[in-house]
């Protein structure tokens, strides 16, 4: 009983809305986002020189996900201030950012860990960076799920992010903007594509399952 109570505390609103926790997650994700864009630097440069300019937003998958989660923490930190929760337009922007944070952080968090694990299973040697990336991406997926019930997105926000997610999958595997992979996975690219699209579906379904919690959060805030 005591352990159950202890675990439930980490799911509680009082714990998740603790300002020290939120500021810690903000800085961790912001620094991780910056590192992520640097990690994609060579691929971004190559894309810039060989492909149309509009391909660029589809290249850095994980950093963009963590960028939106970083922004979502600001909404929680300054909820009700600076007019961020007032007005229909502001509410829609917030809903889209939070839906994007949940769907893409969960998707690419699981995706990166799965790709690293799959490459290891196929004989690719792992280094310290692989373990670091596995830990950080597991954290991406976990934090998105933890905070999902505090978000205030609606069905239309999920639909918009779903369009982006499937468009990103098309760009990754139709136009080959996917993150650079080890040779053992490049040889199995069709399987990687199927897994990625499946993760898109799973991530969107996860957001849909969170809708009742989001509705309750909006009603509690507005009530």
From TrEMBL:
It comes from the Bacteria. Pfam families: DUF1405. Keywords: Membrane, Transmembrane, Transmembrane helix. Coiled coil: none annotated. The keyword Ubl conjugation does not apply. The chain crosses the membrane at residues 20-40, 52-78, 99-122, 195-213. PANTHER family: DUF1405 DOMAIN-CONTAINING PROTEIN, HYPOTHETICAL MEMBRANE SPANNING PROTEIN. This is DUF1405 domain-containing protein. It comes from Gordoniibacillus kamchatkensis.
């Amino acid at each position: 009983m005591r352990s159950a109570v202890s675990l439930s505390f980490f799911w509680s609103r009082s714990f998740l809305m603790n300002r020290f926790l939120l500021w810690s997650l903000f800085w961790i994700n912001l620094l991780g986002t910056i590192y992520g864009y640097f990690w994609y630097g060579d691929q971004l440069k190559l894309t810039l020189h060989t492909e149309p300019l509009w391909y660029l937003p589809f290249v850095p998958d994980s950093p963009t996900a963590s960028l939106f989660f970083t922004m979502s923490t600001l909404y929680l930190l300054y909820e009700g201030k600076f007019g961020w929760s007032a007005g229909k337009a502001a509410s829609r922007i917030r809903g889209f950012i939070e839906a994007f944070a949940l769907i893409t952080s969960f998707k690419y968090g699981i995706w990166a860990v799965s790709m690293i694990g799959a490459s290891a299973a196929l004989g690719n040697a792992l280094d310290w960076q692989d373990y670091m990336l596995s830990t950080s991406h597991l954290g991406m997926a976990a934090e998105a799920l933890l905070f999902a019930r505090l978000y205030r997105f609606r069905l239309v926000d999920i639909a918009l992010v779903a369009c982006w997610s499937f468009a990103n999958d098309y760009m990754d595997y139709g136009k080959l903007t996917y993150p650079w992979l080890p040779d053992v996975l490049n040889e199995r690219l069709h399987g990687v594509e199927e897994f990625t699209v499946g993760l898109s579906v799973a991530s969107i379904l996860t957001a849909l399952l969170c809708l009742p919690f989001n509705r309750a959060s909006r009603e509690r805030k507005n009530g």
